[in-house]
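Please, structure for the following, as tokens.
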Amino acid sequence: MPELPEVETVRRGLAAHVEGRHIVAVEVLHPRSVRRQLGGAADLTGRLLGRPVAGVHRRGKYLWLDIGADTDTFPLVVHLGMSGQMLITRAGDPDHVHLRIRATLDDGNELRFVDQRTFGGWHVDEYAEPAASRTPDTTSRLPDSIAHIAPDPFDPAFDVGAVIAAMAARHSEIKRVLLDQTVISGVGNIYADEALWRSRIHGGRGADRLSRAKLTELVAAVTAVMGEALAVGGTSFDALYVNVNGQSGYFERSLNAYGREGEPCRRCGAIMRREQFMNRSSYYCPRCQRRASARPPTPPTARKQTPPVRVVAHAPRAATAPTGRDEKE
């Protein structure tokens, strides 16, 4: 699934092309792409036709469009899944073989949803209550289906202190905590490995065993690496992730950990390793990112020994001859 830098790149591209435009036609080409929509393709089409796109927003790895005007708006949630793409094309351009949904705009452009694996899709949602949305900006309320997602490091509502406290309270591996979207959103496998490498932390270490200073360093690394990736359009390992113009990101060239098994660590020269973690791969340096050494076993308390009892053996006494006084008369 695309992570924060990739989704934000898509959001920015969409905002530049669709905000203020009206949807004049909708065509659903695969039923799985609207499986989350109550009422299916017909209901989705009816809800979108003739309405303007008021805004494009993101929380972590999740994307939605505000559809409607003034107070009569609702969120169109876009699940990119593993291979979803939101593309802006001209009407009449050749269709992609995995085109799933087409929305025609009033300027002649088309918003196309391409999804090879069909794990993603569109659905109309409702806004969460302001208290549940956890954002002070009422113009970009969260859809109800993602209201449980925590703010990401680029969200004005992001509270570094609260995130560090939440991490420190988790009795789980630190990488598992980084991937928990209810603690900090936007981080996936790629940027988790990159941030852990920068912080010299092994992903298998317990979050509650790390110092507050180390957790602060890690959150700063997460923010920095995702910011750098965003600046170059994200990370593209294959054609499954592209921006709205079909272009790939370039951060793959700057990766220090992810995908570098068998290559020398850029910091110390040790050979990078890969191990399984949560049905995915983790990449790390065995020298820079050591596992926490096991505590040596506490020796058992020495028992207080009782000094041995000294046994002295004596030779038996020689028999004494009876005297006459001892004999009975």
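The beta strands are 23-28, 53-59, 62-69, 72-79, 84-90, 99-105, 109-115, 121-124, 273-277, 280-284. The longest strand covers residues 62-69.
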